[in-house]
Automatic annotation (TrEMBL):
Stated name of the protein: Ectonucleotide pyrophosphatase/phosphodiesterase 5
CC per GO annotation: membrane
Cell compartment(s), UniProt: Membrane
Signal sequence, start to end: 1-22
Membrane topology type: Single-pass membrane protein
Length: 477
């Protein structure tokens, strides 16, 4: 009688536990979101409850050192390759390649020229080569054919497409019959408004609130699609923003003859290509022209920028001090906010938060580099990355466990703290999962109680030996 009950309860327990665990995703999903130009400290400018919700139930890195130059295309390509600009080849938003004899510019369709992108292989391609699917909603470079591939799903770039429509596509791809495991989502603000009004303007408050609401919308849609607890969400950006002023303009026309050079990229890092035979003249004229402009020959650029060994970096690079603006002529277009400056400046640093089954909860880390995101993504996706300039060690503390696809060891510290309020949606954390674990555990306990009773009744003499064996490791400790 007892042994029959014993076996029935044991089998039931085993069944429930195994069903519960197999319900968990065996393949990790990652959604990488970039809010262009979201400076790290915008989190504290106005109330940002949705960003803080992600921080409370996820991780936050306070200072992320991005790459020089702190512009949009170079940094977005770093996030998906782990490489410095000199290594991935997208060295600026406006470039000239003297071997290809071609320009790359946002102002016309030349960014679609594959050759500019092919010094590196972005993660969506590596992910697809490993047999997975990727989906991209407007992430820079995802509608360009690179090494003969596009993302499995992507949206051709169109800045008029709403955030809601981009989110809808991402969710559709994650929940389709052949789901993606990697999603990339891009939004143009707060960069656009940061340029127009300047980051210190009170007009930035509503812009940051709007981004927080957009994040809230994304979270709501992920919950509705039952993705919130199974997907690893990473929220970051490419760079920050600094306040400029018409009082701080450096006008190249004051120092240089327009006919002696071509200005490939303007501010705050002027990329100067001197005309044939004019190098020395241009360099000498500019070198000590302005106290807030540091002028380098390409070979003399500081090592820490990793911005030297690429033919798309022009022979003369002039870098403005924080908040100073380079114009060829004062009548040229000026913006109240800008970025691109030295990546050591805190104002240039982006935000970084993450939430999901792989991440710890309510955990803050001081610092990382934006190149470290790539090995983190490869780890989460369980793919072998290309060689890169990041370090997985710099980000592994963000994770609950360092084995890819591993299950969380506990339901999570916030539940132990008892901090989950009713209506706080984090409590939705897989109800079925906890039910299964609790039922299974109760049955296992019942099984052991009966088993021990059975042992005591039948007076098996082997018991002392078992105890001796258990005691041994303790003696060695
Ligand atoms: C580079 O392209 C331009 C047209 O864009 C052409 O005029 C010039 O001759 C080309 N230079 C070389 C070296 O091929
Ligand atoms: C693209 O724009 C740049 C700068 O605006 C210009 O110099 C270049 O000639 C343009 N290229 C084409 C193909 O239109
Ligand atoms: C861009 O998106 C808007 C809004 O969805 C749409 O009206 C417009 O036709 C699109 N433009 C192109 C070129 O597809
Ligand atoms: C700046 O541009 C204006 C208008 O094109 C021109 O008249 C002026 O001479 C330029 N300034 C310099 C210093 O070249
Ligand atoms: C601009 O140059 C002046 C003179 O060297 C210096 O005092 C000031 O700190 C510089 N501004 C910035 C933002 O570095
Ligand atoms: C998060 O951690 C901080 C300290 O690191 C602690 O003060 C706070 O109570 C924690 N919040 C939750 C919800 O656990
Ligand atoms: C960055 O990574 C690339 C590719 O592995 C490598 O060639 C380059 O030397 C690295 N740069 C640095 C500064 O380590
Ligand atoms: C990771 O990928 C390897 C094959 O590359 C596979 O054997 C392993 O099961 C995967 N791990 C997880 C947790 O998916
Ligand atoms: Zn910008």
């Amino acid at each position: 009688m007892t042994s029959k009950l014993l076996w029935v309860s044991f089998i039931l327990a085993a069944l429930i536990l195994s069903v519960t665990f197999s319900l968990q995703p065996d393949q990790q999903k990652v959604l990488l979101v970039s809010f262009d130009g979201f400076r790290w400290d915008y989190l504290y400018r106005v109330p940002t409850p949705h960003f803080h919700y992600v921080m409370k139930y996820g991780v936050h890195v306070k200072q992320v050192t991005n790459i020089f130059i702190t512009k949009t295309y170079p940094n977005h390509y770093t996030l998906v390759t782990g490489l410095f600009a000199e290594n991935h080849g997208i060295v600026a938003n406006d470039m000239f390649d003297p071997i290809l004899n071609k320009s790359f510019s946002l102002d016309n369709m030349t960014i679609y020229d594959s050759e500019f992108w092919e010094e590196a292989t972005p993660i969506w391609i590596t992910n697809q080569r490993a047999g997975h699917s990727s989906g991209a909603a407007m992430w820079p470079g995802t509608d360009v054919k690179i090494h003969n591939s596009f993302p499995t799903h992507y949206m051709p770039y169109n800045e008029s497409v709403s955030f809601e429509d981009r989110v809808a596509k991402i969710i559709e791809w994650f929940t389709s019959k052949e789901p993606i495991n990697l999603g990339l989502l891009y939004w143009e603000d707060p960069d656009d408004m940061g340029h127009n009004v300047g980051p210190e303007s009170p007009l930035m408050g509503p812009v940051i609130s709007d981004i927080d609401n957009k994040l809230g919308y994304l979270i709501q849609m992920l919950k509705k699609a039952k993705l919130w607890n199974v997907l690893n969400l990473i929220i970051t950006s490419d760079h920050g923003m600094t306040q400029c002023s018409e009082e701080r303009i450096i006008e190249l026309d004051e120092y240089l003859d327009k006919d002696h050079y071509v200005l490939i990229d303007q501010s705050p890092v002027a990329a100067i290509l001197p005309k044939e035979g004019k190098f020395d003249e241009v360099y000498e004229a500019l070198a000590h022209a302005h106290p807030n402009l540091t002028v380098y020959k390409r070979e003399e650029l500081p090592e820490r920028w990793h911005y030297k060994y690429n033919r798309r970096i022009q022979p003369i690079i002039a870098v403005a001090d924080d908040g100073w603006y380079i114009l060829q002529n004062k009548s040229d277009n000026f913006l109240l906010g800008n970025h691109g400056y030295d990546n050591a400046l805190a104002d240039m640093h982006p935000v970084f938060l993450a939430h999901g089954p792989a991440f710890r909860k309510n955990f803050t880390q001081e610092a990382m580099s934006s190149t470290d995101l790539y090995p983190l993504l490869c780890h989460l996706l369980n793919i072998t990355g290309m060689s890169h300039n990041g370090s997985f060690r710099n980000v592994q503390d963000l994770l609950r466990s360092t084995s890819p696809g591993a299950l969380p060891p506990t339901p999570g510290p916030t539940l132990l703290h008892g901090s989950v309020k009713p209506g706080d949606d984090e409590s939705e954390e897989s109800y079925a999962y906890f039910l299964g674990v609790s039922l299974g555990s109760i049955l296992v306990i019942v099984f052991f109680v009966i088993f021990i009773k059975h042992l005591i009744r039948s007076q098996i003499p082997a018991l002392p030996d078992v105890q001796a064996e258990i005691a041994q490791p303790l003696l060695q400790a």
